[in-house]
Amino acid sequence: MKGNPERRGHMKQRSFRLIAVVFLFLTSLACALPFGAPPATDMPPTPNWTMTALFSSGILGSLTPEPEEKIEETSISTLPPTLTLTPEVIAPTLTETPAPTFTIAPTTAVPPTAAPVRPGPVALAYFTNQPPVLDGNWDDFKPVEYGAGYVTYGAASWSGAQDLSSSFRLEWDNQFFYVAARVIDDVYVQNSTGNYLYLGDSLEILLDTDLYGDFYANQLTEDDFQLGISPGLYGVSGVKEAYLWYPRSVRGTRTQVVAASTAIAGGYQVEAAIPWGVFNLVPAEGDHYGFAFSVSDNDKTGTSIQQSMVSNNANRHLTMPMTWGELVLIR
What's the chain's average pLDDT? Predict the structure, then answer.
């Protein structure tokens, strides 16, 4: 380490020169390597210039965007003005025209020309300016009477005219339909009321208020009425009652019906004033209605049973109005 000091100084200078040359050499190599930063003058004008050029040229126009890219929805209001929305045209559906339905029953107020009257009997009700006194005596009725002696139920229990037979008279005014009946009945029994009133001695009136509309009807409708009248509970002098069975929609006791009865030799007499409102009617001279008058009989004391029935119409059938006769209002 001991030597010439001047020689050692020259060696240090040569070492510094060598290091400087190597540094410069390495620096020049770094500028030529591929990972070096490009010159500032070679950078594109915008960061996305390359992708913008590709889409504008159509090269990537058909590519599907990445899932995270949002696509704006186009509403109808932003469609090109030449586009019009045309509603879908649906071809009409062809349906087969059904054959016409023919109604047998006439619906007019004119009697059918093929059958001007029903085959049953015709009863006349006479207009009165002097309402009858309701006391059980029919002498103040017009003396025109109709027989009601045809057995239409319980023939096996019927023993003859003295067992059960009857006749009746009819009048009317603008407020009431008046009925008077003379009944031959050797034993009077009436123990029932209300819906079971017919299970004892009693009267029955059938009235079809739309005769020509139901002329050929074989079933009851809302314009067909069945009204029962009890001459007296437990005896002729007992409480009177009227009960409507049909129409079923309005069935029930009819307290507005006024009745009176009295005992006679071999039977009893009954008078009744029935408001036209019970039949939902406003009467007029010349009106025709379907009609039947009947009487039920019970001869078994202490029981409730309908043993037999007699009627003015031999062919009476309750549920077939076309088998009823007719009622005509006259002056």
Answer: 77
